[in-house]
Design a protein that fits this description.
- It is globular, with a radius of gyration of 20 Å.
- The protein has two domains: 159 residues, Rossmann fold; 146 residues, Rossmann fold (3-Layer(aba) Sandwich), CATH 3.40.50.
- Helix 3 links the parallel strand 5 and strand 6.
- It is an alpha/beta fold.
- It has a seven-stranded mixed sheet with strand order 11-10-9-12-13-16-17. It has a six-stranded parallel sheet with strand order 2-1-5-6-7-8, with helices on both faces. A two-stranded antiparallel ribbon has the order 3-4.
- It is built from nine helices and 17 strands.
- Helix 5 packs across helix 6.
- The longest helix has 15 residues.
- It is 30% helix and 26% strand.
Length: 323
C-alpha cells in the first residue's frame, strides 16, 4: 500500500472495541490510535482526541451494543473529529444495534433504525461499514455509503474443518433463504427452511419445518441470537423431525442476560444443540474453551474491506476472502 495514502488515514478504536480494533490494525499493519474518555460524577462522558486530525481520513471501529453509553461515546467521537476538521469519518460498526426496528409495529411506535441512521449522520459519519444487518432495507435509511459485510468465508471454513457427515443446512426463517443459498453453494449440500410467524418480539407463535432433515447432521446459520428461545425451539423442531444433531452458527451473539438462570447462555448450555459458534462482532461475550460456545474471528473480513476503501478498490458483493 502506498505510504502517502496510508499516512492520510488514522485508525481509532471505541473504548469497548480495543481487542477487535487491535486485530484489525495488526492485519492492516496500521497503528491503532485511541481517544481519551472522561467520566463525570453523574455518569456523563466526554471524548477527547489528543492529536491533530485536520484533513485526515478517520476510520473509527465501534462496538456499540448496550448500554447506550457506548453509542453516545461513538457519537461524541464523530462530532469531535468533525469539529477538528477531519476529512472523511468512516464508522465501522460490526453489530448494528436497532436493526430489528426498521418499521412501525403499530400507529404509535418509532422507526428506530431510521432515527439511529439520522443521528449517526448528523454526528458526522460519512460512511458506514457493518456486518450481517438483520434487515437489508435499513441501508436505505442512510444518505451516505453503506458497506454490508458477511461472515460467509469464515463460517464456511469452520464448517468444512468440522468434517460433518451427511450435512444439511437449515435457514432459521424464509428471509434468510437468499443468504443460505450462498452457504449451500460453497458447501455443496442441501437446505431446509423454518417458516415462523411472530407477533411479539422474541416470541414465535408458530414454527414449521419445510424440507427433510431425517438422518442428517444439521447446521443452522443465523444472523443473531438474542434470548435464544427461538433458536432452541428451532433446534428442537429439527431434532423432532429426525435430525441426528444440530450445530449453530450465528454472526451476532447478543445473548441477553436477566439473571443467573434466566439468560441466553444458560439456555444454550442446557439445550440439545451440540455446539454454538459466534463471531466476535460483539465485545461483551468472552470465550470459554471448556463450554459449548466458541468464538470465531471475523476481523479479517473487516480488514480486507478497509484495505479496499483505502486503496479505492471494489468491495465484492459477497464476503471478502479471509486474509
Amino acid at each position: 500500500m502506498h505510504l502517502l495514502i496510508m499516512n492520510n488515514y488514522r485508525l481509532y478504536s471505541h473504548s469497548c472495541a480495543e481487542d477487535f480494533a487491535g486485530l484489525v490494525a495488526d492485519k492492516l499493519n496500521m497503528r491503532l490510535h485511541k481517544s481519551e474518555i472522561h467520566h463525570f460524577a453523574d455518569g456523563e462522558i466526554n471524548v477527547t482526541i489528543n492529536e491533530s486530525v485536520r484533513g485526515r481520513n478517520i476510520i473509527y471501529i465501534a462496538q456499540i451494543e448496550m448500554p447506550y453509553t457506548n453509542f453516545i461515546e461513538a457519537l461524541q467521537f464523530c462530532d469531535a473529529a468533525r469539529r477538528a476538521s477531519a476529512n472523511d469519518i468512516i464508522i465501522v460498526i460490526p453489530y448494528l444495534i436497532h436493526s430489528r426496528q426498521e418499521r412501525r409495529d403499530d400507529k404509535r411506535s418509532p422507526i428506530t433504525s431510521r432515527l439511529f441512521a439520522d443521528i449517526l449522520q448528523v454526528a458526522g459519519a460519512k460512511k458506514i461499514i457493518s456486518m450481517d444487518i438483520h434487515t437489508g432495507a435499513i441501508e436505505g435509511f442512510y444518505n451516505i455509503p453503506f458497506d454490508k459485510l458477511y461472515p460467509l468465508d469464515v463460517f464456511v471454513e469452520k464448517i468444512k474443518s468440522l468434517e460433518i457427515s451427511n450435512l444439511k443446512l437449515v435457514a432459521p426463517d424464509a428471509g434468510f433463504t437468499k443468504k443460505m443459498k450462498d452457504y449451500t453453494k460453497a458447501l455443496g449440500c442441501g437446505m431446509a427452511i423454518i417458516d415462523k410467524t411472530r407477533n411479539v418480539a422474541n416470541q414465535v407463535d408458530e414454527m414449521i419445518l419445510i424440507g427433510d432433515v431425517k438422518g442428517h447432521n444439521v447446521v443452522i446459520i443465523d444472523d443473531m441470537i438474542d434470548t435464544a428461545n427461538t433458536t432452541i425451539k428451532a433446534a428442537n423442531l429439527v431434532l423432532e423431525n429426525g435430525a441426528e444433531s444440530v450445530t449453530l452458527f450465528a454472526t451476532h451473539g447478543v445473548l441477553s442476560y436477566k439473571s443467573e438462570f434466566d439468560n441466553a447462555e444458560h439456555r444454550l448450555f442446557k439445550s440439545k444443540i451440540k455446539k454454538v459458534y459466534l463471531s466476535n462482532t460483539i465485545c461483551s461475550y468472552k470465550h470459554d474453551s471448556d463450554r459449548k460456545i466458541e468464538i470465531l474471528d471475523v476481523t479479517s473480513v473487516f480488514a480486507k474491506a478497509i484495505h479496499k476503501i483505502i486503496t479505492e478498490s471494489r468491495i465484492p458483493d459477497t464476503e471478502p476472502v479471509v486474509m
